[in-house]
Amino acid sequence: MYHTGMTTYQLNEVTSSKWQHISKPAQIAERRLISAILDGTFAINSHLPGERELAEFLGVTRPTLRETLGRLERDGWVEINQGKATRVCDYWKEGNLGVLNTLSRFPEHMPDNFIENLLIARLAMAPIYTAMAVENAPVEIGSFLAGRHNLGEDPGHYAHFDWEVHHTLTLLSNNPVFVMILNGFKDLYLRLAPYYFKIASARQHSIHFYRDLAHAAEKGDPNQARILSDMVMRESMIFWQQVKLDLFERRKP
Prior knowledge:
Layout: H1 13-18, H2 25-38, H3 51-58, H4 62-75, E1 78-79, E2 87-88, H5 91-94, H6 97-103, H7 114-136, H8 138-145, H9 155-172, H10 176-184, H11 186-196, H12 200-219, H13 222-249
Antiparallel strand pairs: 1-2
Helix pairs in contact: 2-4, 3-4, 6-11, 7-9, 7-13, 8-9, 8-12, 9-10, 9-11, 12-13
């Protein structure tokens, strides 16, 4: 583990050779540095080595390193202070939605309660923006949900359609805060949702929700829409338990 005060880090010849040629330096350097943070090479609240040494470690130029650090500071991975060493943040306490999106690319570092925490956050929001959307634009919702009839069995198609359902609901809620929060979860959701929709009963569960929500919109009943959303969010947690088992099984060597 890399601790505060250490100033050298030796790369083995295999890694050094593998890292010589990169097509998108800033993006790849970002992934390498985040991986080193997550695996404890650069521990939380430790300080990164100097610019020259860190650039050599990552296999990039110093200008590329500065670009990478700027991106990571924006999301809450690191804290840059002029004249001082760059600190590795406690990303669970100081990070933003960008951290969540990034973590979805590192399932081996997700804590066991990662998905459950996301679902709890969704449960707090979805019934509210769903009811607001039905109150504001019931016809538009019914028209959009007609697309459910074109869904086959492909988990990816379901994932994209379900995302668009919720994105449409936030837009029609006329509350831009809901839209921005949901947009922050987009990449993460589209990476994880196909695992959920691999479960046949989960696909059927969502189809029933789209149907019932369309009926609530047709009646112009926001309270019924809120109840439906709350119910489906809670029931989806049961299916996600199966997803979690699948995801974390992949961690095993």
